[in-house]
Amino acid sequence: MTNWEWIVGVMVVTTLAVGAWFLYHQKLLARRAQLMREAILNQDFMFRLPTKGLFRGERALQETLNDLGQDIARLVARHEVESWQRLTRVLTHEIMNATTPISSISQAYLAHPGIKGSPYEEGIRAIHDTCDGLCAFVDSYRKLTRLQEAAPTDINLLELLNSLRTLFGNLKWHVGIPAETIVHTDGNMLRQVLLNLVKNAVEAGAGTIDARWDGALWVSNDGAPIAADVAKDIFVPFFTTKTTGTGIGLSLSRQLMVVSGGDLQLAERPVAGYHVTFIVKTSA
User: Fold this and answer.
1) Fold (topology level) of 153-281
2) What is the pLDDT of residues 63-108, one digit of tens each?
3) Distance CA 66, CA 185 (A)
4) Domain coordinates of the chain in residue numbers?
5) What 3-state class would DSSP assign to 262?
6) What is the distance between the alpha carbons of residues 234 and 105, in angstroms, rounded to a whole number?
């Protein structure tokens, strides 16, 4: 074999190898695109793909797509909150308009001398009490549409968690948050969200709370697990599985985080050793 033939052979083999590698790499990129598309169709905007093994430009593009998914998730959450607020505002307005006159008229009848002691008194009182109860019920939901503007400040997360530990001293706490962890959010809103999460955990029979920081606050408990068919609706206003629940606790908590520039999510898989995990995301 001449040197020229040897060189040509090496070039052919090299070309074939590079071509095969290129086709394989393109197949991997196509698979990435397919996975991202499926995630978007399934509204899984927190889906992320690793950047290891990518070229610099591809890595930058993948990181942008990963971050874009989080941005879309925040926009969807905010739109959802605004939609529920509008619906709740209309419903409460219409219900109050309908029940307030009935309550006033029934109150006037109860004060009439001809009604007191008559067979009609009990029925009219039942109407009046029912209207008052419905008005109080509706009024409790108005807080969903009257959220204050967030006032973000730098909050020491560990100090905030320690104050909650004092309130729930009967629980066992596992806290894995560095002392220097600072988040930029509305402290009062974040505190209310964490209070709701811990109270819900206690009502679900939890004895241990785990709080750890990993770019977001992961709050877990060992209470009763949340069934898959329930998990998809836990942030929907008025939805509850409790006989005495109002269905606004988790919905309000998520709205508070969205207003603060963050989000509240239920983790698909709880932290190992626990039954339920919520992810509390702040703006920074």
Assistant:
1) Heat Shock Protein 90 (3.30.565)
2) 777 677 666 666 666 666 667 677 777 777 777 788 888 888 888 8
3) 23
4) 43-146, 153-281
5) coil
6) 38
